[in-house]
């Protein structure tokens, strides 16, 4: 398989760098009195931009990683026992294709084929829902989502209710529950095993949500706060639901008001979406750094390479390059090397 | 202090953009963003040094070269990059490389460091 070596190592390396950096700066953030949530937002923004740039194949954000891990847990079973225990595996094999099909929804843009009837306001984030996986209610709910929100995936909770994970243009992710109960037929998504952990957390979140909301609306919760912030099971969303039918715009007014709420996932939920996506400015920062090296602005579309020099050798007009530890961007894609040896004639 | 060379890569740029957004929305200070970038420099330098183990060959024609402040900049044309698994061709590539032996910058465009070649010619493309 061509590309296999590179496409395996580059995403992994990037992911490990991201993890290292985020963990290392956590202390700095806390020292500065900045909330953990901002750190998570940084991570999400970072991952999303990497995905959008498409310089890396198969780069997933974190929840997709989890889901893919679960999927891979099933696949080795399928492969190892392929010729043996065929009967025993028959049922998991039946569900695996279903799961695979369901999981197709979760695969990032680079592998995803276009599907109909999905809003894609952010044209670079092509996360589509397979029409076959969505009931009419879910479809309607998806269509009703405000601009800037793209459905990413569906999660079936243990009770069979459908949650959709959507991604707003600003990169924050939310879980959206369409109000009509949607039951997909026998598609028990495997991540409900870890979802056994997820579901109660979601319940906790749903509990304090405002009641008395029109049943036409749904709630969006930021899943990274639920699932990925270590010990925190408490959601501290930055926006508050305004109880309007599906196309609500939200005013950010701080925490949600805890209100009486029937237990479990039957609670009516409030549509909650951040406002228009953030824009990033192009202004330069005033940073005090003494540059060890000169960062050249790169206008090449073809290729750029950053690396370190082991040796540069010239003989008349023949140049030899010995470079190490470099990152290349060639034809839009990222490559990494520990050693690069080159020849050129001037 | 680790090279800041890798800030202008996909990974580095996306981090800088994300930090910019957070500064814009006043969720972090520029000073904090700087700290994050410094941490990124360390992390990427050490990751590249330790976790990457592959080799690439390339061949092309050299259009321009520059050596200033211990930084080499080359522009090559019609280059083929060869890895074990694949071959990549580009019409033009810019290579920015820091002198791996010396981690200190000099204020002059002359260097006594690694080679006898002391260039300060800026052949602009």
Quickly list its features.
heterodimer; A: 346 residues; alpha+beta; 4-stranded antiparallel beta sheet; 7 helices; 32% helix; 17% strand; B: 125 residues; TATA box binding Protein, subunit D, domain 2; 3-stranded antiparallel beta sheet; 2 helices; 3 strands; 30% helix; TFIIA_gsu_C (chain B); TFIIA_gsu (chain B)
Description:
The complex is a heterodimer of chains A (346) and B (125). With 346 residues, chain A is α+β, with helices and mostly antiparallel strands. Chain A has 7 helices and 7 strands; from the N terminus they run αααααβββαβαβββ. A 4-stranded antiparallel β-sheet of chain A has the order 1-2-3-4. Chain B is α+β, with helices and mostly antiparallel strands and 125 residues long. Chain B has 2 domains: 5-51, Orthogonal Bundle (Helix Hairpins); 57-124, Roll (TATA box binding Protein, subunit D, domain 2), CATH 2.30.18.10. Chain B is built from 2 helices and 3 strands; from the N terminus they run ααβββ. Chain B has helices at 10-24, 30-51; strands spanning 55-68, 71-82, 87-99. A 3-stranded antiparallel β-sheet of chain B has the order 1-2-3, with no helix packed on it. β5 of chain A pairs parallel with β3 of chain B.
Strand content of chain B: 25-35%
Do you know the CATH topology of the largest domain in chain B? TATA box binding Protein, subunit D, domain 2
Structural class of chain A: alpha+beta
Order of strands across the main sheet of chain A = 1-2-3-4
What portion of the residues of chain A fall into strands of 2 or more residues? 15-25%
Order of helices and strands of chain B: HHEEE
Biggest beta sheet attributes of chain B? 3 strands, antiparallel
Largest interface: A-B, 86 and 88 residues
Order of helices and strands of chain A: HHHHHEEEHEHEEE
Instruction: Tell the overall outline of chain B.
Output: elongated
**Largest sheet, strands/sense/barrel of chain A:** 4 strands, antiparallel
Q: First CA to last CA of chain B: what distance?
A: 31 Å
| Strands of chain B, total number | 3
Poorly predicted spans of chain B: 103-125
């Amino acid at each position: 398989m061509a590309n296999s070596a590179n496409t395996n190592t580059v995403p992994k390396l990037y992911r490990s760098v991201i993890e290292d950096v985020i963990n290392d700066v956590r202390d700095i953030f806390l020292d500065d009195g900045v909330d953990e949530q901002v750190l998570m937002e940084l991570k999400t923004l970072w991952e999303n931009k990497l995905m959008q740039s498409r310089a890396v194949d198969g780069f997933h954000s974190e929840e997709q990683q989890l889901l893919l891990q679960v999927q891979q847990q099933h696949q080795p079973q399928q492969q190892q026992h392929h010729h043996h225990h065929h009967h025993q595996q028959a049922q998991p094999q039946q569900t695996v294709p279903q799961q695979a099909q369901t999981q197709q929804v979760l695969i990032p843009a680079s592998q995803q084929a276009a599907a109909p009837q999905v809003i894609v306001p952010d044209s670079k984030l092509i996360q589509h829902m397979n029409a076959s996986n969505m009931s009419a209610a879910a479809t309607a709910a998806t269509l009703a989502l405000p601009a800037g929100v793209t459905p990413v995936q569906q999660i079936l909770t243990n009770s069979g209710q459908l949650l959709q994970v959507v991604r707003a243009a600003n990169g924050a992710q939310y879980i959206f529950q369409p109000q009509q109960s949607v039951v997909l037929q026998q598609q028990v998504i495997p991540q409900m095993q870890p979802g056994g952990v997820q579901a109660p957390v979601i319940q906790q979140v749903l509990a304090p949500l405002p009641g008395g909301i029109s049943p036409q609306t749904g709630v969006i919760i930021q899943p990274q706060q639920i699932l990925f912030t270590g010990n925190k099971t408490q959601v501290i969303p930055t926006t508050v639901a305004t109880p309007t039918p599906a196309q609500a715009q939200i005013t950010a007014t701080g925490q949600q008001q805890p209100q009486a709420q029937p237990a479990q996932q039957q609670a009516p939920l409030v549509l909650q979406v951040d406002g228009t996506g953030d824009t990033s400015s192009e202004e330069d920062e005033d940073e005090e750094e003494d540059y060890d090296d000169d960062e050249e602005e790169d206008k090449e579309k073809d290729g750029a390479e950053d690396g370190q020099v082991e040796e540069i050798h010239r003989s008349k007009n023949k140049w030899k390059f010995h470079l190490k530890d470099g990152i290349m961007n060639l034809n839009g894609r990222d490559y990494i090397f520990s050693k690069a040896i080159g020849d050129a004639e001037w | 202090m680790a090279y800041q060379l890798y800030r202008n890569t996909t990974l580095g740029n996306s981090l800088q953009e994300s930090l910019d957004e957070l500064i814009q929305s006043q969720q972090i200070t520029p000073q904090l963003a700087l700290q994050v970038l410094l941490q990124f420099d360390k992390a990427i330098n050490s990751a590249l040094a330790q976790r990457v183990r592959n080799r690439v060959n390339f061949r092309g024609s050299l259009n321009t070269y520059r050596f200033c402040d211990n930084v080499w900049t080359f522009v090559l044309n019609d280059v083929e990059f060869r890895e074990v698994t694949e071959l990549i061709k580009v019409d033009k590539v810019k290579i920015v490389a820091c002198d791996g032996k010396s981690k200190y910058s000099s204020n002059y465009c002359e260097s006594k460091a690694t080679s006898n070649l002391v260039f300060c010619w800026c052949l602009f493309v």
